[in-house]
Design brief:
alpha/beta; Rossmann fold; Gyrase A, domain 2; four-stranded parallel beta sheet; about 35% helix; elongated
Length: about 220
């Protein structure tokens, strides 16, 4: 199944357009789209010229707002300028986000666009490919003096684990038996995206938690 990535910047006229085109040209199984926080409404002529020279230009590439892409479900959001990172919009559901900043070539000569093209190709594309083609998250459960600790690594968002804990606390989670829930006195999420730790305090066994993780709809949805 192909993956969709959104490249977000401010004007959506240079960097994000180049990144969109390069990903679509170079990365098989990944569809790239771009938009701007405050789109200029036009593609920089040098960006278009460069992409045409590298046989990466498509006539449908244009500067646009995010709401024109509402019907697309994204698997990854990439911000390529600091302003876009700071003003990145909220999405209906949690989406992995990474920031890979590039200097804006707008207003500079053609050589600056060539340098940006090369930098995006060598720096951004490997990171996008790694994010979207990485193996599923790893879940390692350990028994501790206070209860159980779970380490989530790989493709995992901290918010994803927070959501799972919230569902469990509010009774929306069906993966854990009522008997197991009663044994847990406290649940604490720590870490960051890609490396999250969940601590469960109480007289609960490693086997009980492993069984619950296998049933979790938040963790195991396609």
């Amino acid at each position: 199944m192909s993956k969709n990535v959104l490249i977000l910047c401010t004007g959506n006229s240079c960097r994000s357009i180049i990144a969109e085109a390069l990903i679509n040209k170079e990365l098989e199984g990944i569809n790239a789209y771009s938009s701007g926080v405050k789109p200029s409404g036009k593609v920089n002529p040098n960006a278009k010229k460069l992409l045409e020279a590298n046989e990466a230009w498509r006539e449908n590439y244009h500067s646009k707002t995010l709401d024109t892409l509402d019907d697309i479900e994204f698997d990854l959001v990439v911000t390529v300028c600091d302003h876009a990172k700071e003003t990145c919009p909220m999405f209906p559901k949690p989406i992995p986000k990474i920031h890979v900043g590039f200097e804006d070539p707008d207003g500079k000569g053609y050589e600056a666009f060539e340098a940006t093209y090369k930098e995006i190709k060598t720096t951004l594309l490997p990171k996008v490919e790694q994010q979207l083609k990485e193996k599923p998250m790893n879940k390692n459960v350990f028994k501790t003096n206070d209860g159980v600790k779970i380490n989530f690594t790989g493709v995992v968002q901290k918010q994803q684990i927070v959501k799972m804990v919230e569902n469990c606390a509010s009774g929306q989670c069906e993966c854990m038996s009522d008997e197991t829930k009663k044994k847990i006195s406290n649940m604490q999420v720590e870490g960051k995206d890609g490396n999250v730790e969940l601590k469960l305090d109480g007289d609960v066994s490693k086997e009980e938690i492993e069984k619950a993780l296998a049933k979790s709809k938040v963790l195991n949805k396609d």
